[in-house]
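Case 326 in the screening queue. Each case pairs one protein sequence with one candidate compound; here the compound is magnesium ion. For every case the pipeline is the same: read the inputs, emit a complex structure as tokens, and attach any notable structural observations.

Predict complex for case 326.
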Amino acid sequence: MICLGIESTAHTFGVGIIDDQGRVFANVNDSYTTEKGGIHPSLAKEHHVKCADRVISEALEKAKLKEKDISLIAFSQGPGLPPCLVVGMEKAKELSRKLSVPLVGVNHCICHLEIGKLLTKAQDPVLLYVSGANTQVIAYEGGKYRIFGETLDNGVGNFLDGFARHIGIGFPGGPKIAELALKGKNYIEIPYIVKGMDISVGGILTNLKQKCDSGRFTKEDLAYSCQETVFAMLVEVSERAMAHCQKKELLLGGGVACNTRLQEMCESMCKERGAKCFVPSNDVLVDNGAQIAWQGILERKKATRKTGSIDIKPKWRTDDVKVAER
Ligand code: AMP
Ligand code: MG
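Case 326 output:
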């Protein structure tokens, strides 16, 4: 069985092709970026509409496959930005009808956990999923995916992008903040906000903006202090989830997990508690089509040819996913 998966929850339109043995034949992604300012849903949608057919053709070419070789279509059903999700869903329905193969909608957050397991060989990890809109500590426990901790307001990626926008360095801001942070020398105290198993970053962003506008601190020192503080919050809740679930593996997912300082902090926490830290390569940490295709394979029993009733789920929560019988 070969599945073609379409990702379009936010800035990336991606197409992955993977078989039921977990062999990745193609993972072609095209992302919307800006020089200045954040992600605008309708511009991201336009981006997806423009590149969709090309990305699909490129993925098939890369995989050295023809359309007739595809036996299943999967798409990111949510959570995500509605205008972006619709583009992926419409393309997926179009392909499903044209090729006369079944279609399955999958939950984007869970895909990060499953593709990470496939590619790193982690067995039963706690996933620290840190992306633009999402920040969740997820694990499979008692027959379902559960959220053990999450952000109470913004995703850490959007928070970093917000700070980057304030200092005028464009989108995505995470990698640019990471570069600035390397040049930071002084740790400036900013609020550290962990509430139970959850974190909150809205107040930290306000605090950083005020500190930046005061002119008393360098951008480099603020970027450095921002990373040290917020990443420590993420490591704290991840460690607590690992202790609670008695799991010995931590898996990273999401664009922010490309950050080498965050990786280093997670690795050192795992080492201290005799656990293992798994970090997939950057092309699967960020949003991508391969993760959607693999989840499609795992959930193939849910697939249907009756595509009419399928719709997007922009606010779909990880812990509301009905786990398919495999
Ligand atoms: P995703 O939604 O998972 O594709 O992740 C996108 C987010 O990852 C954006 O908010 C980026 O700013 C952030 N990001 C990407 N690379 C890095 C990095 N090296 N450090 C921190 N954040 C990053
Ligand atoms: Mg993601």
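Case 326 observations:
- The radius of gyration is 20 Å.
- The pocket of magnesium ion (ligand 2) is lined by residues 108, 112, 131, 254, 287 (CB under 6 Å).
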